Amino acid sequence: MDAFTVSDIRLEGIQRVEAGTVFSYLPVKVGETMTDEKAAQAIKTLFATGFFKDVRIEIDGSVLIVVLEERPAVAQIDFVGLKEFEKDQLIKGLKEIGVAVSRTFDRGTLEKAEQELKRQYLARGRYGVAITTTITPLDRNRVAINFNIDEGEAARIKQINIVGVQAMKEKDLLGALQLKTTNWTSWFSKNDQYSKQKLTADLETLRSYYLDRGYLEFNIESTQVSISPDKKDIYITVSVNEGDRYLVSSVKLAGELILSEEEFRRSVKVKPGDVFSREKLNESTKAIGDRLGAQGYAFANVNASPDVDKEKRQVAFTIFVDPGKRAYVRRINITGNSKTRDEVIRQEMRQMEGAWYDADRVAASRQRIDKTDYFSEVNVETPPVPGTIDQVDVNVNVTEKSTGNISVGAGYSSSEKLILSGSISQANIFGSGKFLSLQMNTGKLNRTIGLNYTNPYFTVDGISQGFDFYHKNVNPTTLGYAFKSQSTGGGIRFGFPIAEKETINVGLAIDQTKIDISPVTEATPVQYIDFQKEFGKSNITLPATVSWTSDTRNSAIYPTTGGLQRAGIEVAIPGLDLSFYRLTYQHQHYFPITKDIVLMLNADLGYAKGLQGQSLPFYKNFYAGGVSSVRGYDTASLGPVNPLYPDTRLGGTRKVVFNSELLLPLPGFDKSFRFGPFFDAGNVFTDQYTLSSDGLRMSYGIAAAWISPLGPLKFSLGQPINEKSNDKLQKFQFQLGTTF
């Protein structure tokens, strides 16, 4: 082609691609000279866009004609035989590699899409997957892509072998791994499905297992993964070299020890003569770093340097301490709280702006924010301020959750048949941190409605204020005798923080109770007859309460360490119709057994008595039994009974309840689900019905708690151990709540 001056440029064949897009790629414009080199460059550049299947350059006199054939556009993407994945999940994955509706169709990209789909299936152990792709032309230069998928069966781990094991038991090593051979839980946990990521994590777990037990030179020599010809069974073989076991010969401290060496040594978990443990060594360096962080040294660097003596099989460590420069907090930034006001979060902060950085206070702040139970997740970061060496920011990021709750409970007993109870509550009203709840009970014997309101920060010093109102009707006519009571009351309470994790609560209330036992029959409990004779049909009390609470739990929802103690006294002030006192004490503690297993122990005690020679009102008795007491027994069913009607429980003036429960995670769930075996013991007593005469009722079973998508769910399956003939049993109990 001879060179010529372009007088005009015409485009032919374009439908979806804008003309301006094509012109932007052409190396020549009207009025410029066209050559063979520029023609070749134009064709190459336009092909490279991926928009066109064919590009031709034609010349008509001095007019340059660019003839284009566009690639078809993807009109739809469908899947046939899809079961393992959600369609939207795969559509999103394909879009990331360039295959999506309205995009230009490219067969090379489609092959990548097929490989991506296979990779997704292989990651789930579907090694027999077969994918057939069909391209169907449509009108207006479009195509439909159909992936026909034969998922096949998921390959299962048939065998895991660890070769070279001498010092350890192979079954203990296999028990520590995430990957398992097929067992009865595999259908749910999927831990028998191989993936490279899981194997990599398990190899690190294996290495840590040995390093934490003194095998400093442990090494994984090879890993082999093979699959059976039918692609259904996977065999994993790991070859290891254990090496020798090492003892710690000495531990030295070096560097800038801004605190006394003795104070640093209290943080060192590794002692001379101990078997080497990488876990304890890491705990030691972290503890020293945390100790420095509590003094404001946010950028402290603590490293342990080993000195290995292979002949004696000993290792000496020198822990180098570099505290860096002391830092203070420039600013506290709060994000993620679209509903909750900043002040609700800031009032829980123990680290202040402008103060020296304190790692303990930062940790306490995070824990207090978590305990508000307004957020599903609380993350705190302390990045350095750019351009400085002595400032940090505290970034608090929260994920809000639904704080309204509709709770429904159900149970069945021989006396009341189906019992329904429920409550509706809203914590964090309008993002203010205040709490409001309404409770209802629809049992045939008991019908209750109650209203509670709490302002946790009535004053800036953290004094709380609350109001309580209730109305309760008791009507046990279904048991064959006429007895009714009606109680109405309300009160005000205040909470005074006396320490970081301790609070004193005081309250004053007023209660009016009306008793109707007419007509009196032989079935009427003598306690009720005596009460009406002594105090009449209606009486008013003025109960004052004082209680102490200590809460050292690391979380209010999923505690793993710490405990909760409550001690309180309620006194009906003398001078009105009734005078009595009630003492209560609860001590609950959590003991971490392993990283994921927690033991919970709980004791709940009570004692009550009348004052000024009066007897205790029967409706102030203690009760035991039920899902939050002694499981396996009907709610409030333990203790003294009506001699004429043994099916009726009267409660007692003393209460003793003990609970022990092992909290375990369920494979495949996050920490929102915990279950485990329990053992309960308890009863209520009077002067005549004593511990020595009737003893404690005991039960065992399994319980679970799950913060499900529908709301909090609790259930238990309890088996009484030493029940008596007139005990009321309720082996299965549950409670379901729905958040909103």
Q: What's the topology here?
A:
Layout: E1 4-5, E2 8-12, H1 19-25, E3 33-34, H2 36-48, E4 52-60, E5 63-70, E6 73-80, H3 87-96, H4 107-122, E7 130-138, E8 142-150, E9 156-163, H5 170-176, H6 186-189, H7 196-211, E10 219-227, E11 233-241, E12 247-255, H8 261-265, H9 278-293, E13 301-309, E14 314-322, E15 328-335, H10 342-346, H11 359-371, E16 375-381, E17 391-400, E18 404-413, E19 417-427, E20 435-442, E21 446-455, E22 464-474, E23 484-499, E24 502-516, H12 526-535, E25 538-541, E26 543-551, E27 562-572, E28 580-592, E29 598-610, E30 632-633, E31 654-665, E32 673-685, H13 691-694, E33 697-708, E34 711-720, E35 729-730, E36 732-739
Parallel strand pairs: 2-5, 6-8, 9-11, 12-14, 15-17
Antiparallel strand pairs: 1-3, 4-5, 7-8, 10-11, 13-14, 16-17, 18-19, 18-36, 19-20, 20-21, 21-22, 22-23, 23-24, 24-25, 24-26, 26-27, 27-28, 28-29, 29-31, 30-35, 31-32, 32-33, 33-34, 34-36
Contiguous uncertain segments of 5+ residues:
412-416, 478-482
- What's the total number of strands? 36
Largest sheet: 16 strands, antiparallel, barrel
Which shape, going by the Cα principal axes? extended
Helical proportion, percent range: 10-25%
CATH superfamily of the largest domain: membrane protein fhac: a member of the omp85/tpsb transporter family
Average pLDDT, to the nearest integer?
A: 85
User: What CATH architecture label of the largest domain applies?
Assistant: Beta Barrel
Quaternary structure of the protein: single chain
In CATH's first tier, which class of the largest domain applies?
Mainly Beta
Distance between the termini: 75 Å
* Lateral strand order in the biggest sheet: 18-19-20-21-22-23-24-26-27-28-29-31-32-33-34-36
Structural class comes to alpha+beta
